[in-house]
Design brief:
There is one protein chain. This protein is an alpha+beta fold. Helix 1 packs across helix 2. The chain has a single domain, classed as Aminopeptidase. The two termini are 26 Å apart. The chain has an 8-stranded mixed β-sheet with strand order 1-2-3-4-5-6-8-7, with helices on both faces. The protein contains 4 helices and 8 strands; from the N terminus they run E-E-H-H-E-E-E-H-E-H-E-E. Coenzyme A binds next to strand 5, helix 3, strand 6 and helix 4.
Length: 180
């Protein structure tokens, strides 16, 4: 269990589909999108679409194509954070993984949850003999600051790569981390 400023949380690896987990991850996604993060959805996202998205993710978890971690608040058990490692890459990139969908609930930020999720996902990547992780995130965002703080290297920026939920354009920065 990790503790920060009176807040406690545990990191768990999700191994199989459970409707309660899908529903909680969908709620978390709605929270993060409603607070303006560019994570693949527009502000028209509804709970049914979020559930459909997470149902697909859990299918990939069960197929061994994705590693999924969640952070749970203690003692409520609320899922307040998540991150994924996509490991289903072409055979000439079997040493590599892609990090995706790092989300922390708006009310639980700056407590070290994302940092802990990153540490744990790197341990999972090492256990799978991965030596390189790649990700992209919004330039100059809180996530950008997180990855810099956690030792990730910047590859470069792509202007106008995606949109914020409200439709305004955002630049994306590609990062990588060697974990040999
Ligand atoms: C980015 C995000 C995951 C960070 O989660 P978090 O749990 O608040 O992050 P942590 O508390 O672990 O922060 C670790 C470090 O990252 C940096 N950091 C995190 N948020 C930051 C912010 N808003 N501004 C500046 N630095 C920040 C800091 O160095 C921080 O250490 P400190 O609190 O000791 O200064 C969260 O803000 C979020 O969910 N954002 C919206 C979704 C998103 O954009 N995800 C990225 C998709 S790739």
């Amino acid at each position: 269990m990790s503790t920060s400023e009176g807040s406690k949380f545990v990191i768990e690896k999700v191994e199989r589909t459970a409707e309660t987990t899908i529903s909680a991850l969908a709620d978390l996604t709605m929270n993060v999108v409603r607070h303006g993060a560019s994570i693949g959805f527009m502000d028209t996202l509804n709970i049914a679409e979020a559930i459909q998205f997470w149902t697909h993710v859990l299918t990939k978890v069960e197929q061994g194509k994705t590693i999924l971690l969640i952070a749970k608040d203690v003692p409520t058990g609320q899922i307040v954070g998540t991150v994924q490692l996509q490991i289903d890459l072409p055979s000439n990139q079997s040493h590599r993984a892609d990090l995706a969908k790092m989300l922390v609930h708006n009310s639980f930020r700056r407590k070290g949850i994302a940092k802990k999720l990153l540490q744990q996902i790197e341990l999972n990547a090492r256990a799978l003999h991965k030596s390189l992780i790649v990700l992209d995130t919004v330039t100059d965002s809180p996530a950008y600051a997180l990855y810099l703080r956690c030792g990730w290297k910047i590859v470069g920026d792509i202007p106008n790569y995606a949109f914020f939920p409200d439709g305004s354009p955002c630049s994306t920065t590609y990062f990588y981390k060697s974990i040999e």
